[in-house]
Design the sequence.
């Protein structure tokens, strides 16, 4: 790898529940690049009360309610952070989320690749609505991985289980639709630029080897750290 070797500028996209978090952490485990998550960045800045202008500092509710932070604030924050990472390859996660954000990012950096995780809507819905809790004890069940012995009933207390509002089908569907509406133009934008790489499937473990193989084609633009095993 000569001095002129370029660094990798990558973005990962995927709906909530698409496995984006898992895939991102596997990528950073196997490849030498910095992972920058906009959600983490925002939470961090909210906590420290820095960088985000005053009107938004108090607005943790922005995040709590799942509403998007205004584009100029988000873009300013992300680009500010990226200025510290110029000598690294990086993977952006959660940013850009809108077309204006993608365009602003483009003015600052040339994006090499956008990894798009495409998991069927119904599969994601099933994953995100699988959690049931027993309110009195806080015991948590997952219909897929850790179901109660009797449907809808706490194993120990024999009382009914409930779903948190966030985990109810109607909330989940709303969230997924909102994600789709926001990000569709971004996906189209990157598609037109010829940098969109879509990975489709229903299980993260089945999608991962393809993502891994794809990123290997980018070595030595990024350095590889270990083998494909998650
Ligand atoms: P996340 O952890 O990605 O779900 O982000 C948590 C919250 O941060 C979101 O609900 C938004 O309020 C905000 N947020 C994260 N990324 C962005 C972005 N690119 N643009 C605007 N708001 C964002």
Sequence:
């Amino acid at each position: 790898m000569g001095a002129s070797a370029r660094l990798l500028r990558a973005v990962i996209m995927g709906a909530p529940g698409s496995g984006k978090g898992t895939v991102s952490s596997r990528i950073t485990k196997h490849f030498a690049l910095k992972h920058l998550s906009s959600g983490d960045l925002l939470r961090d800045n909210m906590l420290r009360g820095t960088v985000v202008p005053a009107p938004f500092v108090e607005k943790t509710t922005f995040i709590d309610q799942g509403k998007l932070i205004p584009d100029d604030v988000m873009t300013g924050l992300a680009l500010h952070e990226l200025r510290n990472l110029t000598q690294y390859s990086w993977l952006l996660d959660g940013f850009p989320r809108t077309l204006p954000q993608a365009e602003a990012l483009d003015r600052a950096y040339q994006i090499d690749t956008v990894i798009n995780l495409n998991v069927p809507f119904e599969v994601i819905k099933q994953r995100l609505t699988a959690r049931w809790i027993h309110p009195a004890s806080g015991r948590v069940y997952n219909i897929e991985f850790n179901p109660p012995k009797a449907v809808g009933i706490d194993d120990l207390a024999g009382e009914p289980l409930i779903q948190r509002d966030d985990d109810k089908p109607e909330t989940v569907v709303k969230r997924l639709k909102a994600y789709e509406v926001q990000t569709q133009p971004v996906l189209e934008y990157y598609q037109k630029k010829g940098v969109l790489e879509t990975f489709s499937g229903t299980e993260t473990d089945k999608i991962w080897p393809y993502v891994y193989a794809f990123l290997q084609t980018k070595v030595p633009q990024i350095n590889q750290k270990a083998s494909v095993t998650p």
Observations:
- The longest helix spans residues 169-193.
